[in-house]
Amino acid sequence: MNGAIFDWHDFLGRWQEEWVPRADEEPDDEPGNEPDGESSLVGPARPGAGEAAIAAAERRLGQRLPPSYREFLAASDGWRVEQTAAIYELGGAADIDWFHDPHGMTPLYEEGLGDDPREEEVLLAGMWRRALRLETESDMSSALLDPGDRGEDGEWALYVYKGWSGEYPDRYPSFRAYMEAMYRGFHGDRAGMPGFVNATTRAQDAHVEEARLLALRGRYEEALPLLEDALSFGRPHSATLLNQLRQLTAPQTARDFGFLVAEPSCLHEILPVQAVEPARGAWRPGGDDHWLGMMAARGVPRETAEAVLGAVRDGTHRYAPPGPWGRAVAEAREAARWGATDAAWRVLRAALPLWEAPGPSLIAPIGLLADPFLGSLITPERGREILATPRGGEQGTAPDPVPDLDPPGLAWLTESDPYRQAGDGYRCVWAEGIDPARLPGLIGEEGATLSAPMDQRWGRWRRASAAEAQEHAEPWEDRAPVAVGRTAGGWAFAFDSDPHHMGERFVSPAPAASASGRAVVVWHEPGRPSLGDRPATFHLSVAEQGEELYAFTVRGTEIQRSGAIPEALDPVRLFLPDATERDNELRALGALHTELGLSLPRFALTRGRLSTFTTRSWSRAPREGESYAYIRFVRHRS
Questions:
Q1: For 289-312, how does the pLDDT look when each residue is reduced to its tens digit (9 = 90+)?
Q2: What is the rounded CA–CA span in Å between residue 146 and residue 69?
Q3: What's the rounded mean pLDDT across residues 543-558?
Q4: Do the Cβ atoms of 498 and 459 come closer than 8 Å?
Q5: N or C, which end of the chain is more exposed by having fewer CB within 10 Å?
Q6: Can you say how many angstroms the Cα of residue 486 is from the centroid of all Cα atoms in its chain?
Q7: C-alpha–C-alpha distance, residues 316 and 320, integer Å
Q8: pLDDT higher at 306 or 416
Q9: DSSP tag of 443
Q10: Which pLDDT does position 32 carry in this prediction?
């Protein structure tokens, strides 16, 4: 129906043949049963108007009608479109007339134009006085053809104004586009009616099945328009298939999977994904009860939905499909758990062809998105790579792999990120050759254990953890909430992206972290001109087997040093008086990467999920005779 040549007789004849009343219509309401004999046809059709009748209407109106509307009148002199809940019937050539804005809409729309209105706003404001009214029966609504809003093809835009809604009118680029939309609406209204089967429904259902197979073969871009078209006709399963494709192309956008959530074969994939939004507290008003009620209405037992929601909320949910794909998921999760998101993605990518659909309505491993460690690493690019990979037993051409997201080394710490500013400070402990799970025992506060995975994007956990840690601490203490992981070079790390000011009583945790080998501590604090010209600070300390080997602290142009510092890390070479603060920082971070092999995973630390714990204090207690004062500034990001 979208070609350049459009056969109105075929289109309207098919609609007439398929016409059945809605389930909520009474027999007396059916067109064709009018007592005065207005129509002799059962259904929406009318006999076509002759050329003389159409020409007479054009003389009366003083305008030649737009092509698609003129052709429509020749095929059917009017039409009943009662399923729109706004326009019930379109009149014939003798019924149409100019609208003349009887309700005074023009001044209201002109007042809202502003100083620099868009072209479409100007057209809409002028439409009311020049439009042609088409409807003869409606619910306080109007179907208006606007001769001032013309396309290059000579078509006039059609506006449907629902007077009871208070909303802007719906715009269609032509009368034909409006009628095609009404035809789809006719089908959508009746899609669930038993026995509503015809050539159109059979063709659309075949498109749904074709799209399902195309999607499994990695040809999702071909499947999308088929499913979108089938959805516009209200065909079963089109929405659930289409939403899977849309979910993976925009992984952070919530989608509704309808009754698929309760299918036993798909519940473990779909229900946790549906629980992500309410687990984040995004359901307002009604909260958990509203969501649980929706799931119950779809057939999910309340206790099952409550258990899944709780697990997603506290980070204990695990996506655990069966078979080879499930084993790959477990391997990838272990890598992502410690920040190796690129490595995790490579494991998943290699195993994607092994994924098997647990039911015919599932075409992609949607369950990945609810896993606390794996969900965050599915970016839109990786989501499209999933969809472009043949899977579920189907064959096809594998896509080119998307690039890794983590840059090597540490230089990224100087760069701005949507969730981190270039001027932010940071401090980190690296311990060589140990399991990251050992770090709480080496440098954690008393009783420290690793938390459930925390979302790194917003930093809320840092502020909450810091406040909780200080509530039961001495005022001089500086306990740090840190994210824990492992670098590509095998170092365990504990990273704090929002440290306090590095004072004179700083004590490096490197010796405590080096009980089994080398440990490195780096602390960078940017210069704060607004705080009395406080200079930038950069600290490095390296320890092994519990003993500090060497260290330096640079504050502005002042350098404090101890031990035998390797030439490549000599602060005199790294921090040049004439260089900018950022250049000096870059030089130091580059040397640490080259000399010691240090790195940090940017993706995991800025938008992934990592476990956390709170360290012991990074500052010592005041000694006898020492006095101190402290002021804490808390920066809130909008």
A1: 999 999 999 999 999 999 999 999
A2: 12
A3: 95
A4: yes
A5: C
A6: 28
A7: 12
A8: 306
A9: H
A10: 45
**HSE (CB half, 13 Å, CA atoms) of 488?**
18
Considering Cα of 577, then 581, then 586, then 591, what sign does the dihedral take? positive
- In the 3-class helix/strand/coil scheme, how is 208-245 assigned residue by residue? HHHHHHHHHCCCHHHHHHHHHHHHHCCCCCHHHHHHHH
Indicate the pTM of the whole model: 0.85
pLDDT in tens, 463-508: 455 555 555 667 778 999 999 999 999 999 999 998 888 878 899 9
* Percent of the chain whose pLDDT exceeds 70: 88
Backbone angles phi, psi at 187, to 5 degrees: -70, -40
- What is the C-alpha to C-alpha distance for residues 274 and 95, in angstroms, rounded to an integer? 51
Beta bridge partners of 344: none
pLDDT of residue 476: 78
Cα(559)–Cα(566) distance, integer angstroms: 15
Cross-strand partners of 528: 534
Look at residue 35 in the predicted model and tell me its pLDDT.
Answer: 42
Integer CA distances (angstroms), 363 to 84, 219, 283, 603, in order:
33, 12, 27, 28
With tokens 């071909």, the residue in question is: 222
Q: Which two tokens stand for residue 131?
A: 């439009």
How far is it, in rounded angstroms, from Cα 427 to Cα 418?
20
Residue 622 has pLDDT above 90, yes or no: no
> What distance separates the 2 farthest-apart alpha carbons in the chain?
109
Give, in degrees to the nearest 5, the angle at Cα 433 between 427 and 436: 55
User: Cα dist. 293→250, 290, 309, 370, 547 in Å?
Assistant: 26, 5, 13, 20, 60
- Distance from C-alpha of 227 to C-alpha of 363, rounded to nearest angstrom: 13
DSSP 8-state class, residue 62 = T
Checking 207-211 for CB contacts under 8 A at 24+ apart, the result is 207/235, 208/235, 208/236, 208/237, 208/238, 208/241, 211/238, 211/241
Report d(CA 509, CA 502) in Å as an integer. 13
- CB proximity list for 111: less than 8 A, separation 6 or greater: none
Nearest alpha carbon to residue 431 among 558, 615, 256: 615
| Residues 525 and 556 sit within 8 Å (Cβ to Cβ) | no
Q: For residues 513 and 431, is the Cβ–Cβ distance under 8 A?
A: yes
As to burial, measured by CB atoms within 10 angstroms (0-12 exposed, 13-18 middle, 19+ buried), residue 637 is exposed
The answer to whether residue 257 scores a pLDDT higher than 60 is yes
Strand-pairing partners, residue 132, are 98, 145
* Nearest-10 Cα torsion for 606, 607, 611, 613: 40
Give the up-direction half-sphere exposure of residue 99: CA atoms within 13 A in the CB hemisphere. Answer: 26
CA–CA separation, 435 and 449 (whole Å): 14
The residues pairing with 538 across neighbouring beta strands, listed in sequence order, are: 524, 554
The Cα–Cα gap between 540 and 592 comes to 9
Axis crossing angle, helix 220-232 with helix 199-216, rounded to the nearest 10: 150
Torsion of CA 283, 287, 289, 294, to 10 degrees: -10
- Least confident residue range of 63-72, 250-259, 627-636: 627-636
Report which DSSP code applies to 264: T
Element (H, E) at 341: helix 341-351
Q: Which residues of 34-44 are buried (b: 16+ CB within 10 A; e: fewer)?
A: eeeeebeeebb
